[in-house]
Amino acid sequence: MDGSGMTEQRLNRMIVGSWVTQAIYVVAEIGVADILAAGPRTADELAREMRMDGPSLYRVLRALASVDIFREDGEGKFSLTPMGKLLESGAPGSKRSLARMAGAEFYRSWGGLLPSVKTGGAAFDEVFGKPFFHYMSRNPDRWRIYDDAMTGVHDSETIPVLDAYDFTPFETIVDVGGGNGLALAAILRRHPGIRGVLFDLPAVVERAREVMAGSGGSDRCEFLGGDFFDSVPSSGDAYLLRHVIHDWDDGRAVSILENCRDAMRPEGRVLVVETVIPSGNEPCFGKWLDLMMLVVGGRERTKEQYEDLFSAAGLRLTRVVPTAHEVSVIEARRAG
User: Where are the beta strands (DSSP E) in 57-155?
Assistant: First the structure.
């Protein structure tokens, strides 16, 4: 095949990428990988167990086998590949919940990307009738799936962050919007001399308390519920914002940062853990994540944009600490 033919095929695969998303969503939603973990099955065997249509399920599995998620043998039985094993519910770094979100709420939101580009508004709000986090708070079953999805996405960055950034100077770390608390728990396990405060919405904090119980370091953690747009707990040495600032537009991001500035000790620091978007044509998953944030109402940012945010909040960017992951630790102190 000549170069033009290969280019055409490559573009074709990109254009129909959503087909793959939906096929993965289907098998994740019905739990195919959980059943195949016990051994190979034919599509008909799976369909009987799941009350699906056998021939239709076969067509989905066959397509996914062509992209190395399943493998079909000569007897028509499907088994898991290493990639397929990541769709198991209990697998380390499981992507099942992410696939369930990507094929449902996220998929529908992406359909509104063009209106978002036209207006700058969040497509999610139009599709679901309310902002993303309002929707989640009213649908706790979906919030649990979202929480699991974010754990699967972000777990792999925790150790690289701990290896790259020195947390030892701090006595108290306030994890603002700390979610399920697993990141803070990892910091407390690594640094026995540090105390932690997990701060998030009250319902989220209660879930985090259960998740962190027995994780190591939970006895040195205080759990506080509240709204970071109103205020955050005072007197921390470091205010950790891990994948929080990218959820919000500039005005609301500045409000969160101002509250951290007002609450922290005089020599305290704000630590934003996010992808810093590089300039030019360099490949970066964050550039695609930024489009996801566009349709739900947030954004990824460049170093210069973080400098502007911090300045508007009365802070100054002191350094950007890269990690072995795609995220960086963006450190700021009080300005002046």
Answer: 70-72, 77-80
